[in-house]
Amino acid sequence: MKQTNLPGFERLQFDKELKSFDGLLSLFLNSVDRVKTLGKKVVAKSPLSPVDPIYAAGALAYDPYTHETLMKSVFKEDYNLTQEALDAGLNSDFNPWNLIMLGSVFSGKNEIPVDIYSTACGCWDDQIKKCWQTMAELGNSPFHFWEIPRFEELTEKWALDFISKELEQLFNFLSSKTGIKVTEEILNSAIKQGNLIRQDMLDLTRLLQSSCIPMPALEFYIAQLLISDYALEPEALHSEYRKLIEELEHRIKQGIAAPGITSDKPLRIYLMGDETQEFQLLNVIEQYGGALVGCDSRLSLYYETVKEEVPAMGALTGWIWNMPHNKPTTARVMATIPYIKQQKPDAIIISNVVGSRNLPGAERLVRDLIREELKLPVLSIETTLPREDIEKIDYQVKAFIEMNAY
Amino acid sequence: MSNSIVAGVDIGSTTAKALIMKDGEVLGGLIGPTGTNPALAGKQILEKVIDGSNHTMSDVKYIIATGYGRVSAPFANKTITEITCHGRGAHHISPQIRTVIDIGGQDAKVVSIGEDGKVVDFVMNDKCASGTGRFLESAAQLVLHVPLEDLGELSSKATSICKISSTCTVFAQTEIVSLLAAGESKENVIAGLHSSISNRVIGMAKRVGVKPVIMMTGGVAKNKGVKNALERDLSTEVIIPENIDPQLVGALGAALIASDLFNNS
Amino acid sequence: MTETTIDFINRDLLESLSTRLAQEPERITTAKKEGKKVIGYFCPHLPEELILAADMLPIRLTFGGELEPVAAGEDFLKSYSCPFARSCIGYRKLSDNFYYTAVDAICVAYTCDSMRRIQEYWEKYFDIPTFSLGIPQTHDRFRSKPHAKEYFKNELKLLRQKLAEFSDKKVTDQDIRKSIALCNQIREKLWILFEYPQSMQTPIEWRDVLNITHAGFLIDRTDFIVELDQIIKVLKRIKTQDIPKDTRPRIMIGGSIIGIGDHKILDIINRAGANIVADFTCTGSMFSRKRVSMPGIIGSPMDGLAERYLYNIPCPFMTDLPKRLNRLVRIARDYSVQGLVYYNLKYCDIWRAEFKFMKEALYNQLSVPSLLIETDYSPTDVGTIRTKVEAFLEMIGGQI
Hints:
Chain A is of the alpha/beta class. Helix content of chain A is 52%, strand content 11%. Chain A has one domain: Rossmann fold. In chain A, helix 9 packs across helix 14. Chain B is of the alpha/beta class. In chain B, the strands form two sheets. A five-stranded mixed beta sheet of chain B has the order 3-2-1-4-5. A five-stranded mixed beta sheet of chain B has the order 8-7-6-9-10.
């Protein structure tokens, strides 16, 4: 891999035999150059904000929370960015993903220049919302917030109405910047494109249901993180996902498991909670006899495909209304459980990022619900920046797997 | 009237300082340990300074107490925070000073002052000890086994700056042990500690804005290594008071304020 | 052990209110025996009117300042979460604060992450009904999102229905109009009190007006109006020109919620010799600014409620920052504020992220400096905070 000169890659164990992953990672690593050739407006959106509306309006979706932090903190190990974030008004005890993202943007070292800040605000993560507010205010860029109302079945009628009006305004705003008016047809086409990617991720996840797990934990983790902005080029992402799926299906046919998996009967682990910057966790899981069978940090973007029917607006609105992460915790966990069950896990690991105040606050509830509904053992881990917690993670995961393995 | 003197007493958490002035001139200043009784320490150091001059306690017409222990200085006429006193003291030493960086035993502060020596903005570190003298002290004594006074000299011999990523004093000690075990030289590690402090303090300083001319005060100002690290990281000169011990700047400021108040009454 | 009394400054003036407050637990207990239900809520976006119209007793549960409930709440939320939110859960868990135990149900406005968690944890672990209210957060002062008000109105209608069912009472529009009139009266009277500290010769200080507001979260609203009337009557009789001018430095406070009983920072500021004259906290003046306007009173009451509760309480969970900045500057100007003490609870992100902008707005428009104090309910940092506050006062007082 030509990316091996990135310091973060030194301590991470990649699956060298998984050729198709290179293409996927390149798509991520060379997005800076591609953006220049694509020549469209870049819209910065938060990780779980719906992606299709942006492509429908003829712009490019970009998730700096994932992209900037992965590049700077995990891959380049350049942590000296938090000062700019503190200058911008954040506190050092904020979520380190946000600190690095803001530090990156305000120090001018951001990977991809942003034209517009537009994100969905909902019943999740105030801190990310405030970061978008800060970036928009200090960056002097056009911005537009839209929102997804709280989920309660009794409120569906007016909630759907509200969402569709919000989408209309969003389209008007984006169109005024891109010059492309969003018609039903265009929206339908964007949804179809998004569906291809959603289906890819569902297929990829389905491959993990097999007893012979073909996909390594680290690569799956990265692959599902990248879905949050369709890599600025949906067709390219779809193509890379397909190649990956093909190679993995081939492995299943041959009975080949991911090389990092050290056990014949690995402890099947489903990862929930905040996305962590400690990528070595994924290696550690396999090292001590576990295997990753699923992950829900981006599940809300591919939990199901959007109905491809006219009116596209209605289909999209309904899909957004059911996004798991917008639901209150109990409803969210109950909605997620069928997906978890499909992966046939033996144990759950919940990741908490210190400084995140959204998911960690609900962790107690999630743990209790998982125990009640699934009767599976649960391990809670806390992480901040890469390397800081690895010793603790190492022995916790080791002990957890030992405790629960056959 | 001709025998009237004023005094500034700065009772810190580790050291107590007293300085006396007459007719605008500094007569003397001393530094002593605070120990467990701040009020007593303050009184004793003041008495000692007076003994060393040609005056008696009855000549002292106005006393300002400052520092962490100022509330327990019943002998003082008034108390003023060390922030205002450091600003005033620094300005007296050099009227060009606009930023005062005070790194003491247990706290650190950055004070931004105007042309008239009045405080415009300030920032103090929180409960954490990193970025203070305690950070260096614990590393020097517990892990490196070198006297505190030698740190500056040793760091000047460093061949490179060893990066210390732990901001926590406790975890930094563990990190230093690993670095030394891995073969890093003491000098390089010390340079790394200085760099850490510098980064921490500059991070704080940016909240009030760092305007030249910059002066460093407090015990850690005597450490050339930290001064050099600050100069390198700020790309500007950092002044250390020469004719007066950097630890006495707070007491100086207090004495000056005492002088003003006495003359106005 | 929690004390559900409030430390009034002017004990003579507020003796009657204090006595009345002390009687409230007993009165509530009696009312409950007679079948009356008690509804708790936390955020000022929740229209009390709906609770009153359903013939139930509203209690705004906003106690704070105590460590024990925070520690108890940590079993649910993490240690790196807002201490106020932790205590909202902890108080109920410990069951030694009468009010938290007395409530038969709670209403939770879906404002910040912490509030949503409070609803979820009460619902699952405390076995009483919880009623949620959705509030739009991206609307602005230009009304560029008229559908936000429509959505909110529908949410209010649903809440009205749920409360009516819970109380087993039919709630008519006229019932709501009556409650609006009641609450408007309270707001007007509180507003009269909040305006006094604008003058240097005020017969009542801001801190007591805050205390009065807090008492009003707990006691029967009709009785509260009687107390307010009495207080205002006494104050009106005072010849303010005879009061010696209060020349202490004039401080505005805000930056997170100031709970009932949370007086650590207030005490430090007062003991350092400053006078707090204004605030922009939701348990203070923000609670009573703006009444429900005429159209709501004679026309559609739900419309009036939606209008007032959506647009008038600019909490930072909403994205319209300029609105908050404008209000901040206006208050600072009206009250001749000399400095802002931004009391931010640790881990309260939404307020923390706006400090920079608020500091700049005040400084650029009014040359008023700000001091950031980030703290929690623990008493260990009192010394450091005192030094910062004293230095800040020395700074704005022109030093010596």
